[in-house]
Structures are given as structure tokens and as C-alpha cells.
Amino acid sequence: MKNTDGRKIDRKALEAIRIRAVQRVEAGESPEVVIKALGFTRSQIYEWLAKYREGGIDALRRRKAPGKTPKLNGSQLKKIYRLVVGVDPRQLKFEFALWTRDMVRELIWREFKVKLSEVSVGRLLKKMGLSPQRPTHRAIQRDELSVYKWMAEDYPAIRKLAKEQNAEIFFGDESSVRSDYHSGTTWAPVGKTPTVKTTASRHKVNLVSAISPRGTMRFMSTDGNVTATVFIEFLKRLLYKANRPVFLILDNHSVHRSKEVREFVKSRAGKLRLFFLPPYSPELNPDEHVWNYLKNHKIGRQCTKNGFDLFKRVESIMRSLQRLPEKVKSFFRHPWTKYILMSGNQRPA
User: What's the rounded Cα separation, in Å, for the pair 41 and 256?
Assistant: First the structure.
């Protein structure tokens, strides 16, 4: 009688055969009679019985078939992860600043002389918990040391001084909103990019705002550019009915450091002081999230008819945000602005 080739039997069916054969032997049948009836070699039944007596029925169950031996071991994968996550490709003499599958493929060949296809590299990167993402852009002129010094030393010193003088700290910034700005996505047939129709006439509203960790927000809108005169008008509004000094932290825009602004601050006799963030570091300013809220979550999803309509909608959104102090406080809880709350264990009131 020709023996059965177990390699040609479905793995699930083979599992059932093993278990049934062992159960028949355990019930009193002869192992050789059982295995002969199944058409397997004589030695096979004794292998199954040995597995059963060592590990029970579970030892007879099917196991996932082993795949191909990985071309890269654990330490090699760890090195690839460290390089892709922590190193600018240009530091490794690549011409492009962003990691692509082809560049990672080249990196693996350089480091380990292992050849992989782009598809295999993509699977490998996903296995390591990586995914293709749109990077943020950061000015090459930025001094990282000054950024960390600001968070660790400069801002804590400002906060300490504010506490001594019973001053309230605000973070301020300027931005503009255009009528043709759109954000978000819309449903459309696959492969056909949708078109958002807008009027050929464009309108713009310029804004200045300032927020505090307590959830307070002040703002001013204008249809003209934010000049020193306009900015001084905003400062007057910020100081209106203020019962304690105001410390305002800003970026290094030329308007903020202009002679007119300096003279105005000096004329306030200590009621107002300006401080400046490190250059090229907008993410340190929580007021940036006001613009993200206004543009990407509100006005960017609406359609405006004309300049006056745009102005009214912007004013309405900003005034509604003023009535949401918890929302304003949340702008201080982003990863790059948490330092404001952590400094001296400060918490929004």
C-alpha cells in the first residue's frame, strides 16, 4: 500500500488526523493498525504519541508555518530605525532631505549589503511603526540652543518677574485671512480632483491678537496692514481697564521693535513690557493656534460673498472664541507650548 504524503494534505485536516489517531490509540487500538489504516508510515504514529504525552492535545495542533528567514536581524533593524527617525538624509550624503523607500533601500545596502525591493522596504518600515507623513518646515537660520534656553531659562525668569510685579502674561501675534482660503477635504470620484469655485475678487482681513494662560483673549481686526500705528492701537486696547501690568511676549517682527512702539511702551510707565521669542520659532507661541483655529477649523470651511461678509464672519468667530476660555487654555497644552504651564508649575486659572 502506498503511504500518504502528509505534505499534500491541508494543514487543518492533518491536525484533525493526528488528534483522531492518538485518541484511537488512547482508546485501546493498536498504534500500527491505526497508522496503517490512515496510510502513513509506521514511525509517524509514535512521533504523534510522543508529542501528545509531552504536551497534550495542544502539541498536536497545527502551528503557523515558518516564513522566510529575515534578511535583517534585530540589531540591524534597530540601526535602520535610529537612522531614519533621527538623522537628516543629507548628513549621510543623500541629496534629498526626506526619507523615501528608495533611499532607505540604498541605506540598507550601504550599511549591510542586503538587497531589498522598494515594496519590501515599505513593509519593513510599516513593521517598525513608521508611516509616510508630511513634514513641518523649520527655518535653517533657527538656533536650537536659544529655543531650549528660552524654555528652560528665559521664560521662567519672565514668569518670576511677572509674579513679583503682579503682572499678567500674554502671548501676541498677527495674521491675515483671505477670502479664497480653503481647508479640509471633500468627497469626489477617485482620480478626479474636485474644484472649489471662488470669486475672482479677493479680500483680506488682517488681525492682531493676544492670549493668556488664564484663557483670556484680546483681538483687533483691520482691513489695512498692521503698521506700528495699528499695533499701538491694539496695545491701547490690551491695556484698557487692565488693573495690573501686562507682559506681552511677541515674535521679532520689525513692527514690534519699531521706534514708535518702543516710545509708546516707555510712556506707559511700567504698565506694559514687551518680551521677544527666539528668532524663527513660531511653535513656541500659543497664539499661533488661534490662527489655526480660525483658518483651518472655521473660516477655511466657509464661503464668503464679499469683503464685508468676510470681515463679519472673522469678527464673529473671534468673538465666539473669546467666550471659550477653556478652548483658549487648550492652546497652551500643545507639545511645544507646554513649557508655559510647566514653568514654575503654572496652571491656567
Answer: 90
Q: What secondary structure does DSSP assign to 29-92, as a single string?
A: --HHHHHHHHT--HHHHHHHHHHHHHH-GGGGS--PPP-PPPSS-HHHHHHHHHHHHHS-GGGG
Spatial distance between the Cα atoms of 26 and 31, rounded to a whole number of angstroms: 9
pTM of the model: 0.58
Which three cell numbers mark 26? 488512547
CB atoms within 10 A of CB 165: 12
Cα–Cα distance for residue pair 324/318, rounded to 1 Å: 10
User: Mutual orientation of helices 31-38 and 11-26 as an angle, nearest 10°?
Assistant: 150
Going by C-alpha positions, the residue among 204, 220, 293, 288 that lies closest to residue 249 is 288
CA 82 vs CA 77, 180, 320, 335: distances in Å: 9, 42, 45, 22
What pLDDT sits at residue 188? 45
**What single-letter DSSP state applies at residue 3?**
P
What pLDDT score was predicted for residue 221?
92
What is the reported pLDDT for 140? Answer: 57
pLDDT of residue 210: 97
Q: What's the CA gap between 235 and 209, in Å, rounded?
A: 10
The CA distance from 252 to 284, in Å, is 13
Cell of 294: 480660525
- 245 neighbors 161 (Cβ within 8 angstroms): no
AA letter at 84: V
Q: How many CB atoms lie within 10 A of CB 156?
A: 17
Residue 186 has a pLDDT of: 45
What does the pLDDT read at residue 183?
A: 47
H or E segment to which residue 231 belongs:
helix 228-239
pLDDT at 20: 86
Spans of the chain below 50 pLDDT: 1, 181, 183-188, 200, 300-301, 345-349
Backbone angles phi, psi at 340, to 5 degrees: -65, -40
Neighbouring residues of 18: CB distance < 8 A, sequence distance ≥ 6: 48, 60
